Structure formats: C-alpha cells, structure tokens
Amino acid sequence: MKELLMDVQNISKKFPGVQALKDVCFQVYGGEIHALVGENGAGKSTLMNILSGVYEQTEGKLIWNGKEVCFRDTREPKNLGIAMIHQELSLASHLSVMENIFMGRLPKKRNGLIDYAKLRADTAEVLKRVGLEEELASVRVDRLSVSRQQMVEIARALSLDARMIIMDEPSSSLTQNETQILLKLIRELRSQGVAIIYISHRMDEVFEIAERITVLRDGGVVGSYMAEDITVNEVLSQMVGREYKMEKLHNCNADYQAQPVLKVEHLTYKNVFRDITFSLYPAEVLVITGLVGAGRSELLETVFGYRHQESGTVYLDGRFVDNKTPGAMMREGLAIVPEGRKTNGIFPQLSVYDNMRISSLGRYKKAGILDNGAIRQEVDKQVDAMRIKTPSVLQKMKYLSGGNQQKVILGRCMMCAPKVLIMDEPTNGIDVGAKQEIYKIIDELSQNGMSIICISSELQEVLTIADRIIVMHEGSITGEMKNENVTQDMIMQYASNQMSNI
Amino acid sequence: MQVKEAPVFLVLVCGCIVVGLMTPYFFSVSNIFNVLRQISIYAILAVGEALIIITGEIDLSIGYMMGLCGVIAALCARANVPPILILLITVAFGACMSSISGVLITKFGINSFIATLGLQNICRGISLLLTGGISIMVKNPITVLGSGYFGPMPLCSVIMLLVIAVFAFFVKYTQLGRNIFAVGSNFNAARFSGVNSKAVKRAVFAISGALVGLSGVISYGTLKAADPTAGAGFELDAVAAVVIGGTSMAGGEGTIIGVLIGAAIMGVLKNAFVLLHISAYWQVVVLGIVIIAAVFIDSVKRLRADK
C-alpha cells in the first residue's frame, strides 16, 4: 500500500477581489503520478504555488507525511523534499550544469574554496539518475536543448532529495520524441518512490502516464479519478463544466456574401504556426481560441506587422498589403488591443490622455503641430463612450483599475477609426463587471459595422461573443465553425486535437 | 501639469535667496548674466541628453563630441568657410556622429552606455589627431555665438533660452515629441500603438547630436579657440542637470523646463562657491551630493507611490 505523502485539506485562497481557490482537497501518494487538469484560470497554478510556498493559503491545512505544515517561503517546502519545475525553466543559462544543480549550496573545502572534485562527482550521480551523460556536468546550460535543460532541472530537484516533484506543463516546449524521453524518466522516478504532480493540457500524455487525475474548475476540485475509470471526453466535460450553451450576446451582423475585409493566406512563422489561412468578413466577430501556446497571439501579431512571417500574404479589402510594421498596418486600418496589458498595452507613467491619443497623433496635425484642443475633445468623447472611470484624463495610467486601463487602450484604437480591430485576450485579469462592459462594447462596435478578431482562451467568452470560431492547436487551425450549436467541449476537443476520440 | 517643475523651481529660488543673503553681489546684473553664460553650454547639451534619457537610453559621448565639433568648426574657420556654413556643417557633423550611437543601439542592440562610452573615446581621439593636442586659435565672425552680446545679455544665453523654448514646445506639440515619452514609458506598447520605437530613438540621438554641434560652435566661440579637450566631463554635468530637473532615469518622464532649472541650480551652486571663496574641491563634493539627493528624492517618491 502506498503511503499518503501530501494531504491537501480544504485549501482556499483569496486575492483582493478574487476567490482563486475554494475548499480544495486532494491527496498525493508516494510513487504516484497524479495529473492535475483544468482550463486556463481554473486555479492549477495557484494551488501549485501554495504547495511550493510562493503563496500562503487563506484557509485550510497542508499535511505532509502526517504532520501539518505551513509554508511561509519557498525554502521550507524545498527542505521537506517538495520541488517545483516551472513551465518557464529557471536555470541560470550561462552557468554550467553542475553550478546550476548545486546553486546556493556548492560543496566547499576546509579553506572555504569550492570543492570542484566533489561537485563533479555529486553532479555525475544525479545526472545518471535522470539519464544524462556525466560529461555534461561542466557544459554551459544554454548549450543544451530545452528538453535536456528540463532534465537538469529535474536533476536539481533530485539532488535536493525531492520526494514530490510538481511539473507545470513540462512538455509544452518539447517535441514528440523529447516528450517520450521525459515520460520515460517520470516513470523511472516513480519506481524510485518519487511522487509526481503532472500538470498538462495534453490529454494523450495525461492518460498515458497518470494513475490518478484530478480535475479543477473555477477554483474548486470537480473530481479525482483513477485514470482507468474515466475517459478523455469525460475529463474534458468535467473541465468545462455544465453542458449548456450560453446565450449569445448579439445576432450575427456579419455579411458572409461580401468580400472579406481581411484575408490571410498561408502564413507561416518559425516553428510557431504554419500555413494559416482565414478570412474576416465585414461586421463579423471572429474568435480565435485554443490552448495557451497554440500560436494565436503570434499569428495576429504577425498579421499586424509586429513580427515578420517567413511566408504568406495578407490582403485588406482584396488588396495585397505589405504588413511590414505596426505603423504601416495602422495606416491601412488595423488596430490592436495587445495581450498583456502591463507589458504591451499601457504607458504607466503617462496620463490617460497621453495613453489614449498616442496612436492617432498623425490625424491631428496642422503644419506638423498637434492640435491638442481637438485631440482633447476626442479623448473626452472616448472616455464617455467607453465609460472609463477616472478622476481626470490627466490621471496617470498606473492608478487606474485593470478594466479601465483596458478601456483606455480600446479607446486608443477607436481614435484611429480602424476597419479591423484585433483584441488579444481583452478580458484577461479584469473583474466580472468590466468584462461584461467590454462584451457590450464589442457588441456595439460590431453593430456599427466594425470587423473584429478576438483571441480568447475562455470558452464561455468565446461562445458569448463569437459569430464564427477558429480553433488552433500547436500552430495549426484544427477547427473552424459558425457559432451555432457549438458546445464548450467541442471546442476543447479541437483545441487539444482529440477529435479522433469522439 | 504645470506643477511638475514647481518643487525644483522652489529649490532654485531658495538657493538663490540663501546665496544672495550671504553675498549681495550675487544678485547684481553682471553676476546673473555671468551665471547664465556659464550654464549655457551644458544646458543646451542637457536638452539633448534629456530627450535621450526620456526614451530610456543614455549618451556619454556628448562631452568630448562637443570638443570635436569645436575643432571641426575651428578647422572650417581656418579654411575660410563662410560663418553660416560653419554653423551648418558643425551641426550636421554632430547629428551624424550621434546617429552612429543611435544606429548601434537600435540596429545592433548594443547597450547605450557602452556604445556611447566607445564613441566618447573615438571623439576624443579624433580631436587629438586633428589638432596634435594643441588648441586651434582662429578668428571668425561665427565666434560671436560664444562671446557676443545681445544688449546686456550674452548671446550664448539667448541661444540657450531659445533652445529651451523650442524644445519645450517640441515635446508638447509635435508627434515625435509625444512619441519620445511613449517609447521611454513602454517600448513594446509604443510599437503596438503604431509608433516606430527604434526610429524614434534614432531621431532623438540625431537631434541631440545637432545640439552637440551647436554647443561645439559656441564653445569654440567663447575663447575664439578650439581646445581638443574642451567638453571633458560635460556629459556628466548634462546628466546631472537632467536628473536634478526631475527627469527619471527610468525613462518616460521629464520636462525641458526642468532641465533649465536643473542647470540653473548647478550654475548657482558653482557660482556661490566662487563668490564665497570656498575651495573649488568642495564644490565638486557638494555637486555630487546634490545629484544623489535629487535622485534619492525621486526614488523615495516612486517607492511611496508604488505602495
């Protein structure tokens, strides 16, 4: 009988304004591979961050090896033998493998200098456990492939005597072959008695290795199952929840008989997406969905001229356009609300006024000099139209709430009077009220004839706003459908490329 | 919006009053014009530096580049180039030199600190090569820019005030002016907003270079001689004026009027030490303290605001 290693009892986590986890219970046994699945935002990351000491839970208990533990920092779980391997690797890329594995605890000689002989020997030992050659010990980490870097991370966890390893989407940047090697290693570790929590979107992997599957949805556990007792479809249904179709926000205004406003043909960009062809029709709301990492953002950023495709062409109103720079595409009538409000959207130190007018300054020039009066009028108009709550348009952007910042960025786009509006995860990280308002704005714009492409990972949102849906999986379009009688798990199956299992 | 410069302006006024009480000569017309003349060159340099710092970069080459521009102007004067052409050639030369930094930074991703440090040495070397290390003394009508007067006022101070006025207008009323702030505040967001972020940086370096050229001509005119080592350390005075004037080293924030006030604070400080007969060595120490204090106040404000 396997021993109970980690017992998570009624864990809840509240962030200001958000209940990220409520009453989560689940158990991990020694030498078990336990898969944790759920949609984006279901609470997987929050839960893992609590187990690895990044956050402290608001309520509930963690029982490790029969003793209650409380993690105030990330060192405590490490000392107990809990290791976390993040989606983005956390190696120091220009240090050697051995320095990475023993970072912060390099063996020292009596005189205080580093004992390289022991370091090499210790490293060789853990490298053997993960199946890497011991000659790699002194190689710089950035010379290794991503999959080998991941092995190094796992080796580091093992060198800390980890008894439970949490892996967050470990296969997301691996090829098919590398994934197989990883899965083999995971099985190997299990036989050594290590427990693995495996977080993944990829159902085929989950079912290939997991003994137990726990499904999270909206911050709570939906169920915990032995893998042989449940099917892929059942798990997918559990992930997306109730089997009902949400009321569509508006009637479709799209004119599918007309010439497409935007047409993209055979677009390819590095290894991110390949041979993508689609069209956007007048007054249409087209939603592109899929899992994180499917290449959706990169696709639209390429169309917008932010990245440069290797091949493929973009047409606007049937006319070829050279999508060389964002500036050029904005002059052609495109505008974008980019993904990542903080990193790509706002100018934090600048005023709301400056944030909103920046894209359309060229429209308000007289002999090279800005007509600030006219700009101010237009900004005020957009602040009203978008119902932006700010004490003054001179308020610095960083003091606005996420929802209001997003509306300012939307207002920035509107001031350019675009023909095509691109929105990348427009409701990410904003509260429910602001979300509804953004939906309403999208609806109004489409009724006024604007053509909109929206990227969304939230299935509810997709079904609420879309006229037509394109689903992407690992850089290719796997599904395209009008938003009629579409269900969430239909989309989920296209998104994880599991159509064959239906 | 107008209040932004108020705290530094207050510091300047208080400083003037304190120094004025200690030595009444401070408020004499001739001394005030003296201070104005002394700050002219690095205030002009500081305007260009401010624009660069607002975009989130830094330029350490401007001091020696100004010396080189002075040498170019003097060599042109020796070759009997017409005065107005001397000005144009030198300004264009400065713009081209600085554009080298702009291209290195935007096209090849070289860190601006390093790129401009390299260029600083290149400029110093070229100045010494062209002159053999000896000042070039040559008379020319263009030297009026450095040593002439407009009524009672030094002509170089008039030029400085004009430069301040032009650029205060520029950052507020032109598209490029606004784009400079956007690029410094968030490079990616500026690109997604249709701003060609890299081109903005290159433009700013070119503008700064042109101002360096103008300063070079003034510097040559002041003594009617071009000293190849003129401008040594001026880049740091310029950065100091920019920072004291309230421009954030993080980019995205700053005002041109603030630059003038920052330069004036430094000018008053230097002047006070002379008038009060305190060792010039102390002047250097105090200037260092003032620079740190200015940045200290800025970061304390920032930390509070973020909490």
Briefly summarize what is shown.
The complex is a heterodimer of chains A (502) and B (307). Chain A is 32% helix and 25% strand.
Structure description:
- The complex is a heterodimer of chains A (502) and B (307).
- Chain A contains 17 helices and 22 strands.
- Chain A has 502 residues and is an alpha/beta fold.
- Chain A has a 6-stranded mixed sheet, with helices on both faces. Chain A has a 6-stranded mixed sheet with strand order 16-19-20-13-21-22, sandwiched between helices.
- In chain B, the strands form 2 sheets. In chain B, strands 1-4 form a two-stranded antiparallel sheet. In chain B, strands 2-3 form a two-stranded antiparallel sheet.
- In chain B, α4 packs antiparallel against α10 (197-223), α11 packs across α12 (256-275) and α11 crosses α13 (280-306).
- Chain B is built from 13 helices and 4 strands.
- Helix content of chain B is 75%, strand content 3%.
- Chain B has 307 residues and is an all-alpha fold.
- In chain B, a hairpin with a 2-residue loop joins β2 and β3.
- The A-B interface holds A 304, 306, 325-327, 329-331, 336, 338, 343-350, 354, 357-359, 361-362, 365, 368-370, 372, 394, 412, 416 and B 1, 172-175, 178-179, 181-182, 185-186, 188-196, 248, 252-253.
